[in-house]
Structure formats: structure tokens, C-alpha cells
Amino acid sequence: MVLRCSCFKISCRFCVLINLRSSSSFFNLPRLSPLAMFLIGLTIGEGRFEESFKDKTAWFIAVCRNFIAPVILLFICVLLHKTGVFKFTQASLISIIIGFSAPISVTLSVMCLQAGKEEVLSSRACLISTLLTLISMPLMFVLCHAFWLSFLA
What we know:
By secondary structure, this protein is mainly α.
């Protein structure tokens, strides 16, 4: 099966090959989100689906992105607020931290596919990160609210 798009030629037969027609198409990646999700599915589908959840490196990347990075940013924001360098409202603090706990962008997987490096790892990390978002976003909301009431109010 061969799919054609203005930017990509995709050949699919147990593997995904992407050839860019021009380097300027890199800047058009955000509009290719459905295609990127399709490519992630194809990449994960190359192997066994269960193996995606056994990949410790993908778990590490997803946990760092969804939990550790937002907590570090929360401490930095609290420190900035307490020292008076920057004053946050409760809504602005929560929106920054919730936005930072969002899953890994599918653009990462597309760029890895373009480069021909770590396609499977990036797709697995994106999958796990997206699933962890179900836990991380509500948890970060509660954590931000608790920090606001405890330290910043």
C-alpha cells in the first residue's frame, strides 16, 4: 500500500518509510497531525502491542514528561511567586502546569521517522505519555490547587 500526500510518500508493508520532497515541509508538520497518528499506529503495529508497555526507556521518557517536569516547573513557579519576581494568579499557575503535563507531541514521532532514528521508541513513548495523561492532568490540577492554598494564597 502506498499513500501519497503533498509532503510524504509513505510505503507500508510491515514498515514505514517516509521520504520528504523538500526540507520546507518540516514547518508544515502541525497540519499533519492525523497522518502523524496514523504513522505512530503503523510503527507500533510493527511489533507486538504488549511490547510497547514493557519498554522501560519509553516509560522513563513518558513519566519524566508527564510527572517530573511539571512538578519541577511548579516548584520554580512557586519560588518565583514567593520571591516576587513574578506574580501568578491561581488560573495562570494551573494553566501553565496543566499545559506542561500534556502528552508528548506526535510531531516528535514524525521527526524521528524522517530522521530514521528511534521510530519505535518515540512512538511507544508517545502512546504511553498519552495514556498517562489520564492520570497526570487531574493530579497536576489537584497539586497546583493544594500548592496555591498552602503556599501562595
